[in-house]
Amino acid sequence: MANYQTTTSDKDDDIELSMCMFGGWFGLHHYYMGNIGKGLLYTFTGGLFIIGWFIDTIKIANKAVTKSIEKENNLLKQGYRKICDNLYINEKDKKINIQEKVLGFSQIIDCELIENKNTINNSYGNTIGEIKNDGRIKTKVNTTSTETIYCDELYINITIEDFNAPNIKFDVINKGHLKTNSAKYKKALENANNILSLLKVIISKNNEKYIENGTVTKIEHRYITEETAQEQIEKLSELYKSGVLTEYEYYMKKQELLDKIK
């Protein structure tokens, strides 16, 4: 079973906010953060007569937003460009920040879009009545069936060079239960495909390095563009002509590149 990496640094803030919103009148957020005395005070006073609960909710929410803005500004100062929440790229240093995990471009091995859908069938009945000559009523039921497809989960599975946790699950829709014909779903799918394309470009660039440094042993990554493949085949040809590659190695690597054109 694959080990997935998830964002954990903001876990305390998220849980604290949830507990404050849904159990703040009881002091649940204070118990969670270890403030037992304050928790007891909230328990016996109904969240300081609701006023303390209301103020705490605003404070915790503002704290989470402030931390998020500070982290983003810090990354931008380091030369990163924001692609979307939890995904930043530094093209100059060839680094990518995914869910606060910093990786070199060369560490991205593969990526795949995963979508979990479910279908709900709805039936609607319409009863029509007709009075016969003998006074009896004859009824007829017209049934109409519709099918609605929902997306419950949409994420990108990213394989990285890490033996301890080789997979990163990057959520785009997490238990959203969105209709697949809704504008929100279409926008999320568009964003997911843009992220996927970016990762494939990085993987494609990784392939070039195997040939540029003259140490071609195996072309491991799956995705490569036709233009990039042609450039690399020309470099392979130069290596073959200079005697670095044998004829067999040249044709094998050439075919390997052609097979990986996306």
Could you explain how this protein is built, in words?
- The chain is of the alpha+beta class and 262 residues long.
- The protein has a domain at 1-77.
- Helices cover 45% and strands 30% of the residues.
- The chain is built from seven helices and eight strands.
- It has helices at residues 11-23, 28-32, 36-49, 51-77, 183-212, 226-241, 247-259, and strands at 4-5, 81-84, 87-90, 95-98, 101-104, 108-131, 137-160, 167-179.
- The strands form two sheets. The chain has a four-stranded mixed sheet, with helices on one face.
- A hairpin with a 4-residue loop joins strand 3 (87-90) and strand 4.
- Helix 1 (11-23) runs antiparallel to helix 4 (51-77), helix 3 (36-49) crosses helix 4 and helix 5 packs parallel to helix 6.
- The chain is flat.
- The two termini are 28 Å apart.
- Mean pLDDT is 82; it is low at 1-11 and 214-220.
What is the topology?
Blueprint (H helix, E strand, L loop, with lengths): L3 E2 L5 H13 L4 H5 L3 H14 L1 H27 L3 E4 L2 E4 L4 E4 L2 E4 L3 E24 L5 E24 L6 E13 L3 H30 L13 H16 L5 H13 L3
Parallel strand pairs: 1-8
Antiparallel strand pairs: 2-3, 3-4, 4-5, 6-7, 7-8
Helix pairs in contact: 1-4, 3-4, 5-6, 6-7
